[in-house]
């Protein structure tokens, strides 16, 4: 998905501006996955099954946890990965941010929303506990920037991530 929709120059600009890449990735993943499901409607059920399986395996380390107790960006990530079935609650302002994530069309929209979320999280002293990046193999060196939490990359190729830990998944 990133290889198709994430512009390299946009990643470089985010890196140069020292953006929080964990937050940017959650917002960009939501946009990319929405675009892929729209372009290839038959994949929608595959996404649902895959994320359901990952949650059952406790891939996101949320099994038995109250998802509503997570900080905003982690709740948002679970919301977009797991869907409405998770019944995650958001405050009125957080719901506005979720709607903003859900309406991103361009990479510039993603950057704008990620900045709003970063400001909100700083204002409320919220920090991501971890970041999980699912990618089709697009890692490059352009994923710099600020990763202020442990990062796990799941990659379906033999590439190694530039930051954090890497696991290879078979598809």
Number of helices: 7
Order of helices and strands: HHHHHHHEEE
The poorly predicted ranges are none
Distance between the termini: 14 Å
The neighbouring-strand order within the major sheet is 1-2-3
What structural class should be given to the helix and strand makeup?
A: mainly alpha
The portion of residues assigned to helices is 40-55%
Q: In terms of quaternary structure, what is this?
A: single chain
Coarse shape = globular
- What is the tally of beta strands? 3
**Strand proportion:** 5-15%
Molecular structure report:
With 171 residues, the chain is mainly alpha-helical. It is built from seven helices and three strands; from the N terminus they run αααααααβββ. Helix 3 runs parallel beside helix 5 (72-82) and helix 3 packs across helix 7. The chain is globular and about 40 Å long. The two termini are 14 Å apart. The mean pLDDT is 80.
Question: What are the salient characteristics of this protein?
Answer:
171 residues; mainly alpha
What's the arrangement of secondary structure elements?
Layout: H1 2-5, H2 8-16, H3 21-39, H4 44-56, H5 72-82, H6 92-102, H7 107-123, E1 131-135, E2 151-155, E3 165-168
Parallel strand pairs: 1-2, 2-3
Helix pairs in contact: 3-5, 3-7
Give a short synopsis of this structure.
With 171 residues, the chain is mainly α. It contains 7 helices and 3 strands, in the order αααααααβββ. The relative contact order is 0.18.
